Amino acid sequence: MIKVGDSLPAVTLSEYSEVEGNGCSLGPNPVDVAQATAGKTIAIFGLPGAFTPTCSAKHVPSYLDNHDALKAAGVDEIWCLSVNDPFVMGAWARDQKTDGKVRMIADGDAAFAKATGLTLDLTGKGLGLRSNRYSMLVKDGKVVTLNVEGPGKFEVSDGATMLGQVK
Question: What total of structural domains would you count in the chain?
Fold first, then answer.
């Protein structure tokens, strides 16, 4: 499993853009993790799935609620990663009203989750291989803090905990 001090894996994720701008085309766009994190401080949180109860009712809202304070504390971007396709993540972004606050990034084939060792096997529940619930603070592509939740828990990966670690 990835740990504090490690570099993020060199994988490419995907993000759905609602509008054209800043060189982004409509539709899914690649997110090269190494390039996108270079020189930035990023709060990343991973979760099992879009539109799922805890993820929608608590996890994403905790980062939306703490967005302004995280930015004021020096976080350049907030990323939500999930093993879903970019179209689902785009629809979930609209539903959660994350535009301009949280980048909803798809780890469609679980490349990031596998490379970091942060997988959760929900095969018996019909969900297949997913991402564990976690958060990490990343500076210039390196992990500064890592908070991995126990099975079925939501106690250490929320936005308020991340804010306490950034300060």
Answer: 1
